[in-house]
């Protein structure tokens, strides 16, 4: 942690997760605090203007009711005493103009003649209504002197929550959405680290969690995890190296032992010892194979011809099948099947499946290796099948259904599983209706036009173990 202590002091304050969230939240609240009063101010002004127009229109309606046509066709306007004070020049707050259809001023609350009266747009502002009174059209305009207008507080308060209060709901929703965006941006480096962590496994122990942009509160945890991964990788390396070294060291004693057995006079004993040595040699070869698979990193751009790989396997294992009075056949498509994969690793996996099938199929029967155009390989035998409860156990290292058998150590199918895992492929097993088992490998097809890598050549050191 000493290497990171100095960086903490040089880091800006917002590198802290808490300060980052607080800072962004303050920005969000500041933006809302600026725009919300502007919106409310506009809504309040709109409400005041609407109340003013409604009040003026109501007054104009009252004045229209006081206009009467006399028998001679003359219009008269009789303003009641209760309203005279309201429209008096002494009060000076409200005024009205009543005009005919031609715009001539008929009645007014201010002392001006019709000829001298200014235009309505210059003197009257407010609301206007037009009425037909005994066939005569008149226009009543009522206005308030805005210089002396008093705000109608009670009306504004009573109508504000009814017409404006609803805006609080979308504001809260906006704040909630803003908070979600803020938190997502704040913890984005943690998501990136978690995605990297999901790729860590026995085959990829070299991956480390990124420390760039990690908040100060989380950085010690990420650093501790990376150091734990360093220790785990060291442990895996020691284990793999031990397996490889042990297998290499066992090869020489086995070769010497095989040579000395040839000097024995008893043929039966010599033959039994040879069988034991072959079993041990196959075990050593499989241990070396597992060690290689554990350290091998597959190139994502590598392409292999699955059909050619299977043909190579069938040709290599055919003598083994014939020696046991069994047969093996290659079926399926005759065209190349390009997949993402390493040809040598694929050979090892399919060889183990084929040899395993040959050992368990009945005599005078055939093991089928079928290649599909969809990137699948099916290996079928005519053996006893596999109990459903053991279909996952058979892929574990050193697992054997019959511990008394000495012709294998239970590593062959674990090699198959390791190869499929490295290729992001799948392996499945099921029993056939007529007896026997079928193993299915499914690989990712390569794009059209890509060239497969050449085959690795003859198989060396490939082995198999019973299920």
Short note summarizing the structure:
By secondary structure, the chain is an alpha+beta fold. The protein has 12 helices and 13 strands.
Notable traits:
membrane; 48% helix; disordered N terminus; elongated; alpha+beta; ATP binding; 5-stranded mixed beta sheet; phosphorelay sensor kinase activity; 12 helices; 467 residues; 4 domains; disordered C terminus; 4-stranded antiparallel beta sheet; 15% strand; HisK_dim/P_dom; HAMP_dom; single chain
Molecular structure report:
The protein is 48% helix and 15% strand. It starts with a helix and ends in a 25-residue tail after the last strand. The protein has helices at residues 2-10, 17-64, 81-84, 120-123, 153-163, 168-186, 188-198, 219-261, 267-295, 306-323, 343-360, 412-422; strands at residues 67-69, 75-77, 94-100, 105-108, 126-133, 136-144, 303-305, 327-332, 338-340, 366-371, 376-380, 426-431, 437-442. It folds into four domains: 2-49 and 154-186, no CATH class; 65-150, no CATH class; 196-297; 298-442, Histidine kinase-like ATPase, C-terminal domain (Heat Shock Protein 90, 2-Layer Sandwich). It has twelve helices and 13 strands.
